[in-house]
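Why do we care about 3D structure at all? Because function follows from shape, and shape follows, mostly, from sequence. That is the central idea of this module. The next example makes it concrete: a single protein chain, its amino acid sequence, and then its structure expressed as tokens.
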Amino acid sequence: MKKLVSLFAALVCVFTFSIGNVSAASVYVNLTYNEFTDYSSWLSLDAGETLHIMVENHNDFNIEYAVIDNLGRTVTSGEMTSSGLRSYPRDLPVGKYKIQLNCTSFGGFCNATGTLKDY
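And the structure:
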């Protein structure tokens, strides 16, 4: 009986941790000095998931960001003119999305990161 309870507890743990690892995915882009535009890879958004957008400007140079769907349409965009973090959820239809960062400051001195997550 003791072995059966131990086996059942182990199966419950494996099941619980495997669900948590499958549920969230993310893609990332890093815009560094002397780069003017960069894109992340594609993130698949499934039914029931919300797209979470996070953009961080690491210095005070101007950057623009855009989230683009697989048809090339911009679904949300914005501009950051000072250092800081902008993070918000967005309800979007099932599909594939990527984030684009653009340095709009003269000289390409931008340093920023963009992340998309689904959960």
